[in-house]
Every structure is written in C-alpha cells, then in structure tokens.
Amino acid sequence: MARELNLPRSTTYHLLSELTEAGFATHFPEEKRYGLGVASFELGSAYLRHDPLERLARPLLRKLADRMEKVAHLGVLHGAEALYLVREQPRQPQTIVSDVGVRLPAHLTASGRAMLAHVPPAQVRALFPSVASFVDRTGRGPHNLPALRRLLTAERRQGWAVEDGFVTVGFASVAAPVFDHGERPIAAITLTFRHVCDTPCGQAWPELAKEVRKAAEELTARIGGHAAT
Fold first, then answer.
1. Which residues contact 219 (CB under 8 A, 6 or more apart)?
2. SS3 content of the chain, % helix, strand, coil (to 5)
3. Extended strands (E) in 140-184
4. Cα–Cα nearest to 61, from 207, 178, 166, 152
5. Which residues form the signal peptide (predicted)?
6. How far apart are CA 161 and CA 114, in angstroms?
7. Taking Cα atoms as reference points, which of 173, 159, 153, 155 lies closest to residue 217?
C-alpha cells in the first residue's frame, strides 16, 4: 500500500489503524497481514464469502477445541437457518451432524438462537411467520413463536444459548454471539459435545459457556465489533 500510494510507512500504518477502528480493515495477527473488515460487508460482494471472519475465527476455534476437548464451530444466520462456516476438531476427533456448509434450523441450534436473541423481534417474527416454520427434529425445542421468544429472552439475559438434544439426540451445544461494529450479531461460536439424557436436563453448562463467551468476545474485538448492551 505504501508503495502503490507513494506514502511513508508511518502514514500508511496510521491510515490502516483508522480503517481498522472504523471496521473497514482487519488485522490478521497470526498472518501479520491486513484484509477487508466487517464494514466492507455493507459495501459490496467482496465480503460475502465470509473469508476475513473465517480466517480470524479459525485460530480461536482451534485453541478452544483443544482446550475444552470438544468440537468448536463458527456459524452465521442464513434466513431461518444456521449455516456453519468453520469447524475445528479436538485432538480426538468426534463425529457430529454440524459440519462446514451444513444448514440447520436456527431455532433449534444454540448458535442460531445465540444470534436470534439479539435481533429485533420483528425480524424474528418475519423469519418464523407460522407454526409451519418450526421444524421438529427430535421432539425437543420451541414449536411456536411465543415459546421461541420466551427462550430467546431467557438466553439473552443469560448471555449464552444452550441446545440439549434439539438437533440430534445424544448431543448438546453451548453458543455465544459475535457482534459487528453496529452491535449486530454477525456470527456465533459454539462448542458441541456428547450428552445423553432422557428428557431435557435444564443444564446451562456455565463453565463451558465462560470459555465460549471469551472466544466470542475476542473475535468481536478482532473484527472491531461492539457487544450489544
């Protein structure tokens, strides 16, 4: 950039710092490079592949998976579905349904609800306009809009979302949202693990949630975002 614009290096770094603070540039510390920031999402199709978000999230997910010995994901909302962009396995790989590119009903997944808990109620209503919108996989999870709203309110207050056999019997997940510079939920980080119980146990897994939230907060900071108040 300094060479192409014929600028001093100090001026170039100052400009990059300003662009990063505004969300238009992103620093990739592991790669020692800069790239497009989250704000670029609003300006054109260059960001639609989610590449910067994935690259910034991957090392955080890898550390989280190894530390907690559970599968870590990065997911985004795609309509009424949660779309998984990145998956990192722990040292002992585990087989689960949520792989890269897989889409699952957002109201059933912890990642989907972690994001839905921070979008306007009118948007939630638009995504789930009728009872027919509520896909059922295991008999668990919200089956209508009032039930979903109650769950979203509780999970927003709690600070993380939990899924216990809603998607696949014998598995549970804990997720926390990632926010952009406008305090909008742009993604969610999730830990998924084996958990078997005959009925929903009501567990919240606060110790796991603490680590997931820490990773989500770090990714929020990396993309120049601000957590919703």
1. 56, 57, 60, 178, 187, 189
2. 40, 20, 40
3. 161-164, 171-179
4. 178
5. none
6. 5
7. 159
DSSP 38: G
Token representation of residue 105:
């009903």
- Sort 178 into a burial class: Cβ within 10 Å, 0-12 / 13-18 / 19+: buried
Write out the E strands in the chain: 25-28, 33-36, 71-78, 81-88, 103-105, 161-164, 171-179, 185-194
Lowest mean pLDDT across 31-45, 122-136, 173-187? 31-45
Tokens matching residue 59:
């090392």
54-73, pLDDT tens digit by residue? 889 999 999 999 999 999 99
Q: Classify strands 81-88 and 103-105 as parallel, antiparallel or unpaired.
A: antiparallel
β-pairing, 185-194 vs 71-78, is antiparallel
In 68-135, at which residue ranges do the beta strands (DSSP E only) sit?
71-78, 81-88, 103-105
* Residue that wins the pLDDT comparison between 95 and 160: 160
